[in-house]
Design a protein that fits this description.
This protein is mostly helical. It is built from 7 helices and no strands. The chain folds into 2 domains: 46 residues, no CATH class; 61 residues, lambda repressor-like DNA-binding domains (434 Repressor (Amino-terminal Domain)). Helix content is 51%, strand content 0%.
Length: 138
């Protein structure tokens, strides 16, 4: 499936959200049904779709997933979460819909801190000449 075909799905394939992983699964199922050979993904749906900054998008998605979990665990409405995170409610609404391109990784980490989560950044030598960004969730 190419980019033009993906864009035909109301832009859902271009929203950077946790739901994109489900879209990837759906995409692979659809391809298998059409008789096209499916291949196992790389572990980064954004890289599989050929999007620029795929590692950054994966990190941001992981952070947003954790923010959603925190909001649910704390029983917060979008308005309450917005106040606690220090961002306008429309940005929270956009984030819940998968539109968080206007929020930096740093701001997403700040949101998690304000929701009561600690974030630990670990730096270590890379196994390859160029290192990678990863997020480990507990």
């Amino acid at each position: 499936m190419d980019r033009e075909q993906l864009q035909g799905f109301n832009g859902a394939a271009w929203r950077y959200s946790a739901g994109l992983a489900c879209w990837r699964s759906l995409r692979l199922q659809k391809r298998a049904i059409e008789g096209v050979e499916a291949q196992r993904g790389s572990g980064n749906v954004f890289a599989d779709l050929g999007l620029p900054d795929a590692e950054r998008l994966k990190i941001k998605t992981g952070l947003v997933v954790e923010i959603r979990k925190a909001m649910r665990a704390l029983g917060l409405t979008q308005q309450e979460a917005a106040k606690r995170m220090g961002i306008p409610q429309p940005k929270v609404s956009g984030m819940m819909r998968g539109d968080f391109t206007n929020l930096s990784e740093r701001k997403l980490m700040d949101c998690l801190n304000r929701l009561g989560y600690d974030i630990e950044i670990k730096v270590r030598p890379a196994a390859e000449p160029i290192g990678h960004l990863t997020i480990a969730l507990t």
